[in-house]
Amino acid sequence: MTEPLWQRCLQHLEREIAPQEFNTWIRPLHMQEISKQHIVLLAPNRFVLDRVQQHFSARLIELLTQLNHNQKLQLQLQVGTRRKSAQAQPSTAGDRAGQKRNNIVSFGDKLAQNREPPTNRAKPQRVWQQSPLNQKFTFQDFVAGNANRLAYAAAQQAAETCDFNPLFIYGGAGLGKTHLMQAVGHQLRQTRPQANIVYLPTERFVSDMVKAIQNRVIEDFKAYYRSVDVLLIDDIQFLAGKVRSQEEFFHTFNTLIEGHQQVIMTCDRAPRALDGLEDRLKSRLGSGLTVTVDVPARDTLVSILQRKAAVSNVKLSDEVAEFIANHINSNIRELEGALHRLLASARFMHREISLDFSREALHDLLAPQIQPQYNITEIQQQVADYFKLSLEDLLSKRRQRVIVRPRQMAISLCKDLTEQSLTEIGHAFNRDRSTVTHSYKTIHKLVGADQSVQQDYQRLRTQLSG
Amino acid sequence: MSAQLPLAFRWQVPSQSFSNYIAKSNQTVYQTLLQVLDKKEELSMYLWGESGTGKSHLLQAASQYASARNQIPVYLPFSQLQHISPDALDGLETVDLVCLDDIQQITSSSPAMLLEWEQALFGLFNRLHENQVPLLITANTQVQSLGLNLEDLVSRLSWGYSFKLEPLPENCKRIILQKYATSLGLSLPDKVADYLLSHHPENLKQLIIYLDKLNYASLAKKRRLSIPFIREVLNDRFSGE
């Protein structure tokens, strides 16, 4: 009877309320009928709840009463949901065997009780759920190339032994860090079926900890994370500036390492470059093996595209794959996004995936990459600012290393990011074209060999593209 | 002379659904969106385009589509919601579909607030992905040009489908206006529709607002839509502002 009553209520409200308001405030509600006289309306969060309470509750009571044969009705509005995680395979916290069977668990689910209706809340259940790993993120699906070969080997090793503990994988966004880390999780699932393996993004560690403090279960939180066999924690840079979370993570981390429990982390930069993190934590994070993933070479990108297309039963020609890889080459997620779009366009337009069609279907995605919007002056200024130099120094004849290296980097960025000729770039720096070539070669050699140069170079590229 | 106010005027306003959506050059977008809603494809979709290209229509239609399947959708129109803050995204992984309309609005926040928004969106994306909940986002420009600073977020938003919505050809606008008028119970003759289009060359969204206004006036004054009536009502509107 519940759904028909709510459905009828929705039908009435849809005619009364402007469509946009109806979609925003009424559709997200879900009704739970506790009894004929007691109805609970669940809103997904406080934001929706407050608005509904303020503007619609009187009409809701009136309408529901009317539709409920004018029987007096108690209406309760609260934050909650009927929906469980799609991957949920609940087991009680006490059921450690069950938990072990599920392998990948998350503390956050234990806190999910707070979103349950009062019937459930009155008798809290300590429910644990599987935290899903992306099924596509396995070693088999990872395309290794020179840019990530070390990280790939280290991850494979971590899935076999605890020799490198912690393993710290860092690199730019969308380069496969999460993929590698989850691949370890998948493999461990098979090789150590009894192990308690936890994967979670850092922001969830932070928010779960805050909720644990609010719900006075912080001791449970600590005990839980310090007892896992393997902790896979993603995007650790989000601990920056969060003092209390860093403190808790520091102790969790130490306990795990001392107990020879594996810790694998991903981050967008090297540990020592993490601003907003305590020095002692930075030092601990880098105390095991630190590996980097870099932007893959073109041939690796082509392989990635062709392998992903093959999953959708599409054979992508070398010509098309190279075309896409030539234009989208700094981020694998963007590369996949372009492929998704191309495959969908071909399917719905009933077209063969030719080079011409790819150009047509992806024109707006590729446009910003085809037409670089950088100019030499902007690059010079950004590099000078980054290294805290004056523009005059950067362009001067001075040969001190603190000036030469930034100058070479600026020249190199101009060659990478603009379509200006070597002569034009040289002219802008008061140098000849052979100096431009030398600077370019020097920087690109250093990017492959010196972590700090690589970091500076990537950051500047990011800043310039922002 | 004061006109009689029609009671419950809003009862006449139809919702934006797939049945009154005209795809035309956005056919691939429309088909892909249906696949996303049916969870047959990637679960995030970023739609961008200029005002009046049907972005809000598609998101509201998606909400209705989910609702009709007994699912719970959330639709947040950022340009319409005052005092919206990042905690509006809390807990949304517990619904069945999340639609965020006009997210370019967050980029006009202060740098500190923008960072909060970006982190909230980043967290939401991860939670939705984990729970296999489809996410539909619209904006007035493509992801890379939005002015977001958090690379991890830009990267994630570029991961699913990203489509530009193309404006409808002029000859389709008349059909849409007439379809919309019919759904309001109004008759909009060709010559009257053409008058509206030629004298008010604003985007379709604005023309729909005019039709709502005309509907209200038509009910109040018990008159049919004619060119003199439109001239009177819309001119009234302009002189009144």
Automatic annotation (TrEMBL), chain A:
One GO MF term: lipid binding
CDD domains on file: AAA (cd00009), Bac_DnaA_C (cd06571)
Keyword field: ATP-binding, Cytoplasm, DNA replication, DNA-binding, Lipid-binding, Nucleotide-binding
Keyword Cytoplasm: yes
Annotated stretches, region: Domain I, interacts with DnaA modulators: 1-85
Ranges for domain AAA+ ATPase: 163-315
All residue ranges annotated as the Chromosomal replication initiator DnaA C-terminal domain in the record: 375-443
Region Disordered: start-end pairs: 81-128
Chain intervals for the UniProt region annotation (Domain IV, binds dsDNA): 347-466
Subcellular location: Cytoplasm
Listed GO biological process terms: DNA replication initiation; regulation of DNA replication
Domain comment (free text): Domain I is involved in oligomerization and binding regulators, domain II is flexibile and of varying length in different bacteria, domain III forms the AAA+ region, while domain IV binds dsDNA.
Biological role: Plays an essential role in the initiation and regulation of chromosomal replication. ATP-DnaA binds to the origin of replication (oriC) to initiate formation of the DNA replication initiation complex once per cell cycle. Binds the DnaA box (a 9 base pair repeat at the origin) and separates the double-stranded (ds)DNA. Forms a right-handed helical filament on oriC DNA; dsDNA binds to the exterior of the filament while single-stranded (ss)DNA is stabiized in the filament's interior.
Family in the record: Belongs to the DnaA family.
Entry protein name: Chromosomal replication initiator protein DnaA
Species of the source: Candidatus Venteria ishoeyi
